[in-house]
Amino acid sequence: xxxxxxxxxxxxxxxxxxxIEALAGWLRQHGHRVLQTREPGGTPMAEVVRExxxxxxxxxxxxxxxxxxxxxxxxxxxxxxxxxxxxxxLCDRFTDATFAYQGGGRGFDRAVLAQLEAWVQNGRxxxxxxxxxxxxxxxxxxxxxxxxxxxxxxxKAAFFDxxxxxxxxxxxxxxxxxxxxxxxxxxxxxxARVLAVAQxxxxxxxx
Length: 207
Ligand code: TYD
Fold this sequence. Notes:
Layout: E1 5-9, H1 16-29, E2 34-38, H2 44-55, H3 60-84, E3 88-92, H4 95-105, H5 110-121, E4 128-133, H6 136-144, H7 157-173, E5 178-182, H8 187-203
Parallel strand pairs: 1-3, 1-4, 2-3, 4-5
Helix pairs in contact: 1-8, 2-3, 3-5, 4-7
The structure holds thymidine-5'-diphosphate.
Thymidine-5'-diphosphate is lined by residues 12, 17, 39-40, 67, 92-93, 97-98, 101-102, 152.
């Protein structure tokens, strides 16, 4: 049986990383084979692209082409084979991030992004996306205790307002796939919300 493709989204500082770890553990306990991966990245070539996108100045079209090129390599050489082998794939960010960051944050043409999405994904979409939604103020406070900011993390609050609105627009367009998780509150509170969604979806499908 084909594995399930689950992606995790949210503005920088929303706190999704620890929940990806926790969900991977929970799924393994329930007998699933799990692959954890991320975008941009997940293959040697795509990890090189990640370094460029996170640290080198470039315009929004270049950024979009690079993240989609990395995504193509990742999908073809890692994600698809894993799903075909029955492995559950947990991916930290995917195409919704491109619509939110390049489309929303940078204001780049979403019609061009939709064209790239169609070429690269051929209609393939995640089975489930958990969108960790939190205000840019809370996210900024969480980022303040983290490491040196990259090109995105260094952006101002208004940028993250636009990214958040970008996620909201994507979620409105795919309500069955994208589940909004209120990411405010303690780690335990948010994990309880993640687990509730995982259990609800788990009940509906096999390993
Ligand atoms: P992030 O996933 O937050 O990793 P870390 O937890 O290591 O900081 O960083 C990836 C950054 O890349 C994030 O700021 C969003 C950005 N990004 C895009 O702009 N477009 C994309 O399509 C993707 C996948 C990510």
